Amino acid sequence: MAVTCCEDALLNDCAGANNATAVKPSKCSEIKVCSVNFVPVFFAVLAGLAYHQYLPLYVVNAYGALGSAMYKIQIDIVSDIACPWCAIGYARLQRAMQQLASEYEFTVQWHAFELNPNQSGQGEPILPALARKYGRSLEEMRFTQDQMMTIAKDLGLNFEKIQERRVCNTFDAHRLVKWAGEQGQQTGMKQALFEAYFGRAANVSDHDVLVRCAAALGLDPAQARDVLTSDQYADAVREDEARYQKAGVTAVPTYIINGKHLISGAQEPATLVPALQEIGAESHSTTQ
Questions:
Q1: What number of CA atoms fall less than 13 Å from residue 91's CA on the CB side?
Q2: Which domain holds residue 140?
Q3: Which pLDDT value is given to residue 150?
Q4: What is the DSSP string of the chain?
Q5: More confident residue, 107 or 62
Q6: How far apart are CA 92 and CA 24, in angstroms?
Q7: In the predicted model, what is the mean pLDDT of residues 246-274?
Q8: Number of Cα atoms under 13 Å in the Cβ half of residue 74
Q9: How far apart are CA 3 and CA 104, in angstroms?
Q10: 285: confidence class by pLDDT, cuts 50, 70, 90
Q11: Which residues lie closer than 8 Å to 267 by C-beta, 6 or more apart?
């Protein structure tokens, strides 16, 4: 099964949907999320987004907080540390959530997905790897990465070394994210790994790099190393991957909310805010 991230296409292929001015959240009654059992229907739900095979995909779930003036929105994010659009998409989502903070209480949960599950050892430099994979020139891929650097900088993200990174396996990094979640630092760990990979071109399959990311968050480096040298959280990561692959997810990130609503693309906050408000309003009305 081929898996992709938005960077895998030329930026122009993503720009139309990323900058879309109107994205209506779509209901999908075929997706059932009770015990998180999905039907592979994600990539056909939003009309007008022709480049879905390259774009981050979001599925959003909102529900009313009964007896409270604040309503809750739970967002489950399927993503890979190796996907730059996952970092960009979350930064945009953060801005949207900040704008809605007076109306909604957001909870975010991260789930594992690997773009390069078969990679081992020292990976190939990213530019020739992408150029070969998509039949593009190195110049085209460098231009794409330059544009992503500009987008990231505007969002306060460090992508300074995005062109110097190498293809790498992220399985152990996902295990560490699971562990960090139990310490209340799941999002912090994810962001630290994005910073390491795109900002410093660090090898996020290297245990020393991962331990340093944990320590930078104030987590116990000895415990982090214990996790990495064992098989802790391996089953949880594999369960995530199997679940979403079965659902037909081949591009990341994917946001899941109660299996009812889909927002596709690393949308701008101006697009996300009204979409989340619509979902929230609908969910609130069902509790009345």
A1: 17
A2: 4-286
A3: 97
A4: ---EEGGGS-HHHHHHHHT-S--PPEE-TT-BTTTTB--S-GGGSSTT-TTTTTS-EEEEEEE--TTSSSEEEEEEEEE-TT-HHHHHHHHHHHHHHHHTTTTEEEEEEEEE--S-TT--SSPPBHHHHHHHHHT--HHHHHHHHHHHHHHHHHTT---TTTTT-B----HHHHHHHHHHHHTT-HHHHHHHHHIIIIIH---TTSHHHHHHHHHHTT--HHHHHHHHTTTTTHHHHHHHHHHHHHTT--EE-EEESTTTEEEESS--HHHHHHHHHHHHHHHHHHT-
A5: 107
A6: 17
A7: 79
A8: 13
A9: 33
A10: low
A11: 17, 18, 20, 23, 58, 89, 92, 275
Give first-to-last CA distance, the chain, whole Å: 44
Instruction: Determine the residue type at 180.
Output: A
Residue 24 carries which side chain, given as an amino acid letter? K
Record the tokens describing residue 73, joined without a space: 């929105």
Total number of residues shown for the chain: 288
Rounded to an integer, the average pLDDT of 173-190 is 98
Banded pLDDT at 3 (limits 50, 70, 90): low
CA distances from 239 to 37, 111, 245 (A): 12, 10, 10
Q: How many CB atoms lie within 10 A of CB 78?
A: 27
Query: Structural domain tally of the chain?
Result: 1
Q: Which domain CATH number covers 281?
A: 3.40.30.10
Cis amide leading into 40 (omega within 30):
no
